[in-house]
Amino acid sequence: MSDNKSLQRLIAVQAIYEVSINKNRIHYPVNEIFNDIIVSSSFKNKLQKINMSFALEIYDGVCKNSEKIDRILTGSLSKHNKIDTMDRLLKAIFKPAIFELFFHNDLKKNIVISEYLLITKRFFADKECALMNGVLDNLHES
């Protein structure tokens, strides 16, 4: 994961996750959240030199379309996988992926799916990666 858009996706996921576990952070400026993540990141030197507009676009898009994204995710899960009991980090990966697939049509769907599978692999094992792949593939085909 080295190109700027990939790193910005990762930052957006981390910011979405952070806000999901610390509701007070939603009142902080998003750039401050991004900066806190960047400072503690192993990509710090590279990230401090790039414009975070793509990460901001993803983060804002997820926030503005949150209810629609939740409905899409809920409708795409099997009865065994429920959004209410899903790990918050996994949900934080699904949301921007769904945003990019449905609301941000600048990139090919296969690229978006691959990018979010790479992010999922950073944090989870095969079971969650298979779930991510299956749901995003099904959404891509619909």
Describe the protein.
The chain contains eight helices and no strands. It is mostly helical and 142 residues long. Helix 1 crosses helix 2, helix 4 crosses helix 6 and helix 6 runs parallel beside helix 8. The protein is globular, with a radius of gyration of 14 Å. The model has no long low-confidence stretch (mean pLDDT 88).
Helix/strand layout:
Blueprint: H1 4-21, H2 30-39, H3 44-47, H4 53-64, H5 66-76, H6 88-103, H7 109-123, H8 126-141
Helix pairs in contact: 1-2, 1-4, 1-6, 4-6, 5-6, 6-7, 6-8, 7-8
Task: Calculate the mean pLDDT score and round it.
Answer: 88
What is the share of helical residues?
over 70%
Major beta sheet summary:
none
SS-derived structural category: mainly alpha
Number of helices: 8
Annotation, overall tally of beta strands = 0
The low-confidence parts are none
Can you tell me the overall shape?
globular
- What distance separates the N and C termini? 28 Å
Any key phrases for this structure?
142 residues, mainly alpha
Compose a concise summary of this entry.
By secondary structure, the protein is mainly alpha-helical. Helices cover 72% and strands 0% of the residues.
